[in-house]
């Protein structure tokens, strides 16, 4: 359905002649060669610029590159001392928890 809406795939001779006729009406027969000449110059400039870019790229590829330098591996130092045998385990810091309000508890009423 989309193909029939945009005429993709159904360009025939009739459609091409209709488009050519509309272009001639819009621009005039004298300006069409000028338009195509300008388009040709634009394409030529684009190709020249891309060729210049391609000629610069092999210069960079041919140069040997040094391998990336990686710092030597250093084992991290422990943050705390090693646990002593027979000693009680240390508790870490725990954030205090606020008391929970229970609306059904008569002893725990909100303060106003």
From TrEMBL:
- Recorded protein name is Sec-independent protein translocase protein TatA
The function of this protein is: Part of the twin-arginine translocation (Tat) system that transports large folded proteins containing a characteristic twin-arginine motif in their signal peptide across membranes. TatA could form the protein-conducting channel of the Tat system.
Annotated transmembrane regions? 6-29
What membrane topology term does the record carry? Answer: Single-pass membrane protein
> What ranges does the record give for the region Disordered, renumbered to this chain?
45-112
Entry keywords, A to Z: Cell membrane, Membrane, Protein transport, Translocation, Transmembrane, Transmembrane helix, Transport
Family affiliation: Belongs to the TatA/E family.
Q: What's one GO MF term for it?
A: protein transmembrane transporter activity
Composition skew (Low complexity), residue ranges: 76-95, 102-112
| Keyword Transmembrane on entry | yes
Q: Lineage of the native species?
A: Bacteria, Pseudomonadati, Bacteroidota, Cytophagia, Cytophagales
InterPro entries to which the protein is assigned, alphabetical: TatA/B/E (IPR003369), TatA/E (IPR006312)
Q: What gene is behind this protein?
A: tatA
Keyword Thylakoid annotated: no
The processes (GO biological process) annotated in the record are:
protein transport by the Tat complex
Q: Cite a GO CC annotation.
A: TAT protein transport complex
Subcellular location(s) per record: Cell membrane
Name the source organism: Hymenobacter sedentarius
Quaternary structure (record) = Forms a complex with TatC.
- Entry-linked NCBIfam families: tatAE
The biased composition feature labelled Basic and acidic residues covers: 45-54
Q: Where is the composition biased (Pro residues)?
A: 65-75
Signal peptide range:
none
């Amino acid at each position: 359905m989309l193909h029939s809406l945009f005429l993709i795939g159904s360009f025939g001779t009739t459609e091409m002649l209709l488009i050519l006729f509309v272009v001639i009406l819009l621009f005039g027969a004298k300006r069409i060669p000028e338009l195509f000449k300008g388009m040709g110059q634009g394409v030529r400039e684009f190709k020249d610029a891309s060729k210049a870019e391609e000629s610069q790229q092999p210069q960079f590829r041919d140069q040997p590159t040094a391998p990336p330098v990686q710092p030597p591996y250093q084992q991290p130092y422990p943050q705390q001392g090693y646990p002593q045998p027979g000693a009680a385990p240390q508790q870490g810091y725990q954030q205090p928890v606020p008391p929970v309000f229970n609306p059904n508890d008569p002893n725990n009423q909100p303060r106003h």
